[in-house]
Protein backbone atom coordinates (compact mmCIF):
# COMPACT_ATOMS: atom_id res chain seq x y z
CA UNK A 1 0.00 0.00 0.00
CA UNK A 2 1.44 3.36 -1.03
CA UNK A 3 0.89 5.86 1.74
CA UNK A 4 1.94 9.06 0.06
CA UNK A 5 0.45 12.30 -1.16
CA UNK A 6 1.10 15.45 -3.11
CA UNK A 7 -0.61 18.72 -2.27
CA UNK A 8 -0.41 22.01 -4.13
CA UNK A 9 -1.77 25.23 -2.64
CA UNK A 10 -1.79 28.44 -4.64
CA UNK A 11 -3.26 31.67 -3.26
CA UNK A 12 -2.59 35.34 -3.86
CA UNK A 13 -0.22 35.14 -0.86
CA UNK A 14 1.63 31.82 -1.23
CA UNK A 15 2.51 29.03 -3.62
CA UNK A 16 3.30 25.76 -1.84
CA UNK A 17 3.88 22.20 -3.01
CA UNK A 18 4.26 19.34 -0.53
CA UNK A 19 5.11 15.73 -1.31
CA UNK A 20 4.92 13.26 1.59
CA UNK A 21 5.77 9.57 1.98
CA UNK A 22 4.66 8.20 5.35
CA UNK A 23 6.75 5.03 5.17
CA UNK A 24 9.96 6.79 4.26
CA UNK A 25 13.50 6.98 5.54
CA UNK A 26 13.59 10.60 6.70
CA UNK A 27 14.76 12.18 3.46
CA UNK A 28 13.86 15.86 3.36
CA UNK A 29 14.13 18.45 0.61
CA UNK A 30 12.82 21.66 2.13
CA UNK A 31 12.95 24.93 0.21
CA UNK A 32 11.02 27.84 1.66
CA UNK A 33 11.89 31.53 1.95
CA UNK A 34 12.16 31.07 5.73
CA UNK A 35 15.47 29.46 6.79
CA UNK A 36 14.26 28.68 10.31
CA UNK A 37 11.23 26.77 8.95
CA UNK A 38 13.53 24.90 6.57
CA UNK A 39 15.53 23.79 9.61
CA UNK A 40 12.42 22.78 11.61
CA UNK A 41 10.80 20.89 8.72
CA UNK A 42 14.08 19.09 8.01
CA UNK A 43 14.15 18.02 11.68
CA UNK A 44 10.53 16.87 11.40
CA UNK A 45 11.26 14.83 8.27
CA UNK A 46 14.38 13.19 9.70
CA UNK A 47 13.05 12.30 13.13
CA UNK A 48 9.64 11.13 11.87
CA UNK A 49 11.19 9.06 9.06
CA UNK A 50 8.94 10.87 6.61
CA UNK A 51 10.18 11.56 3.10
CA UNK A 52 9.13 15.18 2.74
CA UNK A 53 9.60 17.60 -0.13
CA UNK A 54 8.45 21.19 0.34
CA UNK A 55 8.73 23.95 -2.24
CA UNK A 56 7.28 27.27 -1.11
CA UNK A 57 7.24 30.93 -1.98
CA UNK A 58 5.22 33.61 -0.26
CA UNK A 59 4.69 37.26 0.50
CA UNK A 60 7.44 37.32 3.12
CA UNK A 61 8.10 40.96 2.25
CA UNK A 62 4.91 41.66 4.23
CA UNK A 63 5.67 39.22 7.05
CA UNK A 64 6.11 35.48 7.56
CA UNK A 65 2.62 34.68 8.85
CA UNK A 66 0.92 33.73 5.57
CA UNK A 67 3.72 31.43 4.49
CA UNK A 68 4.10 29.69 7.87
CA UNK A 69 0.35 29.17 8.26
CA UNK A 70 -0.01 27.90 4.69
CA UNK A 71 2.89 25.50 5.24
CA UNK A 72 0.91 24.09 8.17
CA UNK A 73 -2.25 23.87 6.05
CA UNK A 74 -0.54 21.97 3.23
CA UNK A 75 1.37 19.65 5.57
CA UNK A 76 -1.86 18.82 7.40
CA UNK A 77 -3.64 18.15 4.10
CA UNK A 78 -0.74 15.97 2.94
CA UNK A 79 -1.01 13.79 6.05
CA UNK A 80 -4.79 13.58 5.79
CA UNK A 81 -4.55 12.43 2.16
CA UNK A 82 -1.64 10.00 2.71
CA UNK A 83 -3.42 8.34 5.65
CA UNK A 84 -6.42 7.51 3.45
CA UNK A 85 -9.08 5.56 5.32
CA UNK A 86 -6.66 5.08 8.27
CA UNK A 87 -7.11 1.31 8.35
CA UNK A 88 -4.50 -0.37 10.50
CA UNK A 89 -2.87 2.76 11.92
CA UNK A 90 -1.96 2.96 15.58
CA UNK A 91 -3.86 6.29 15.83
CA UNK A 92 -2.67 7.39 19.30
CA UNK A 93 0.91 8.25 20.19
CA UNK A 94 3.03 10.40 22.43
CA UNK A 95 6.63 11.46 22.58
CA UNK A 96 8.78 13.33 25.06
CA UNK A 97 11.89 14.91 23.58
CA UNK A 98 14.66 16.70 25.47
CA UNK A 99 17.00 19.17 23.84
CA UNK A 100 19.55 20.05 26.49
CA UNK A 101 17.57 21.89 29.20
CA UNK A 102 14.26 21.92 27.29
CA UNK A 103 11.71 19.12 27.54
CA UNK A 104 8.64 18.91 25.30
CA UNK A 105 5.83 16.36 25.44
CA UNK A 106 3.59 15.86 22.38
CA UNK A 107 0.45 13.71 22.26
CA UNK A 108 -1.53 13.00 19.08
CA UNK A 109 -4.77 11.30 18.08
CA UNK A 110 -5.34 10.91 14.34
CA UNK A 111 -9.07 11.32 14.74
CA UNK A 112 -10.59 14.77 15.04
CA UNK A 113 -9.18 18.26 15.05
CA UNK A 114 -8.44 19.66 18.50
CA UNK A 115 -5.40 21.65 19.52
CA UNK A 116 -3.68 22.59 22.79
CA UNK A 117 -0.33 24.37 22.89
CA UNK A 118 0.75 24.64 26.51
CA UNK A 119 4.19 26.15 25.99
CA UNK A 120 4.48 29.75 27.08
CA UNK A 121 6.53 31.23 24.23
CA UNK A 122 7.45 34.91 24.35
CA UNK A 123 6.86 37.34 21.50
CA UNK A 124 10.42 37.14 20.25
CA UNK A 125 12.44 36.33 17.17
CA UNK A 126 14.84 33.54 16.32
CA UNK A 127 16.84 35.23 13.59
CA UNK A 128 14.11 36.74 11.42
CA UNK A 129 11.52 34.18 12.52
CA UNK A 130 8.62 35.29 14.73
CA UNK A 131 8.33 32.63 17.44
CA UNK A 132 4.62 33.36 17.91
CA UNK A 133 4.14 31.63 14.52
CA UNK A 134 5.08 28.22 15.96
CA UNK A 135 1.65 27.61 17.56
CA UNK A 136 -0.01 29.04 14.42
CA UNK A 137 1.81 26.47 12.29
CA UNK A 138 0.81 23.54 14.49
CA UNK A 139 -2.80 24.74 14.73
CA UNK A 140 -2.99 24.79 10.92
CA UNK A 141 -1.57 21.25 10.75
CA UNK A 142 -4.11 20.04 13.32
CA UNK A 143 -7.09 21.65 11.61
CA UNK A 144 -6.20 20.35 8.16
CA UNK A 145 -5.15 16.83 9.16
CA UNK A 146 -8.08 16.15 11.48
CA UNK A 147 -5.60 15.69 14.28
CA UNK A 148 -5.90 16.11 18.02
CA UNK A 149 -2.58 17.65 19.01
CA UNK A 150 -1.35 18.54 22.49
CA UNK A 151 1.98 20.13 23.42
CA UNK A 152 3.32 20.64 26.93
CA UNK A 153 6.67 21.78 28.21
CA UNK A 154 7.25 21.66 31.97
CA UNK A 155 10.50 23.62 31.65
CA UNK A 156 12.90 25.18 29.21
CA UNK A 157 15.41 27.99 29.12
CA UNK A 158 16.64 28.36 25.53
CA UNK A 159 14.02 29.46 23.00
CA UNK A 160 15.59 27.68 20.03
CA UNK A 161 15.81 24.47 22.03
CA UNK A 162 12.15 24.40 23.10
CA UNK A 163 10.91 25.15 19.58
CA UNK A 164 13.16 22.53 18.00
CA UNK A 165 12.19 19.98 20.66
CA UNK A 166 8.53 20.68 19.77
CA UNK A 167 9.10 19.79 16.12
CA UNK A 168 11.08 16.67 17.07
CA UNK A 169 8.46 15.51 19.58
CA UNK A 170 5.75 16.06 16.97
CA UNK A 171 7.78 14.05 14.46
CA UNK A 172 8.24 11.10 16.81
CA UNK A 173 4.58 11.09 17.86
CA UNK A 174 3.35 11.29 14.26
CA UNK A 175 5.71 8.49 13.20
CA UNK A 176 4.19 6.23 15.86
CA UNK A 177 0.56 7.26 15.27
CA UNK A 178 0.82 6.84 11.49
CA UNK A 179 2.58 3.48 11.73
CA UNK A 180 0.67 0.34 10.85
CA UNK A 181 -0.19 -2.09 13.62
CA UNK A 182 0.42 -5.64 12.33
CA UNK A 183 -2.37 -6.90 14.62
CA UNK A 184 -5.09 -5.01 12.80
CA UNK A 185 -6.25 -4.02 9.34
CA UNK A 186 -9.34 -2.19 10.54
CA UNK A 187 -10.11 1.41 11.35
CA UNK A 188 -9.02 1.94 14.98
CA UNK A 189 -12.40 3.07 16.30
CA UNK A 190 -15.51 1.34 17.63
CA UNK A 191 -17.48 3.76 15.43
CA UNK A 192 -15.99 2.22 12.30
CA UNK A 193 -14.76 5.57 11.04
CA UNK A 194 -12.32 8.31 11.96
Question: Briefly, what is this?
Answer:
The chain has 194 residues and is α+β, with helices and mostly antiparallel strands. It has four helices and ten strands, in the order βββαβαβββββαβα.
List its salient traits.
alpha+beta; Ribosomal Protein S5, domain 2; four-stranded mixed β-sheet; 4 helices; 31% strand
Helix content: 25-40%
The CATH homologous superfamily name equals Imidazole glycerol phosphate dehydratase, domain 1
**What is the CATH level 1 assignment?**
Alpha Beta
The counted number of beta strands is 10
Rg on CA atoms, Å: 16 Å
SSE topology string: EEEHEHEEEEEHEH
CATH fold node name: Ribosomal Protein S5, domain 2
> What's the number of helices?
4
Tell me the count of domains. 1
The CATH level-2 architecture is identified as: 2-Layer Sandwich
Description of the molecule:
34% of the residues lie in helices and 31% in strands. It has 194 residues and is of the alpha+beta class. It contains four helices and ten strands, in the order E-E-E-H-E-H-E-E-E-E-E-H-E-H. Strands 1-2-4-3 form a four-stranded mixed beta sheet, with helices on one face. A four-stranded mixed beta sheet has the order 5-6-10-7, covered by helices on one side. The chain has a two-stranded antiparallel ribbon with strand order 8-9. The relative contact order is 0.20. The protein has one domain (4-178): 2-Layer Sandwich (Ribosomal Protein S5, domain 2). A hairpin with a 2-residue loop joins strand 5 and strand 6. The radius of gyration is 16 Å and the shape is globular. It starts with a strand and ends in a 16-residue tail after the last helix. It has helices spanning 35-48, 65-83, 133-145, 159-178; strands at residues 4-10, 14-21, 28-31, 51-58, 92-99, 102-109, 114-118, 125-126, 129-130, 148-155.
Amino acid sequence: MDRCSQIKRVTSETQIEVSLVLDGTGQGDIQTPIPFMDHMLAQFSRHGYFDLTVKATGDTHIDLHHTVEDLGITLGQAFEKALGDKKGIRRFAQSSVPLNEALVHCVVDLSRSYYVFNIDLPKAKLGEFDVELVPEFFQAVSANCGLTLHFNSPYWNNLHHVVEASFKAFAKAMDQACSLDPRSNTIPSTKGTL
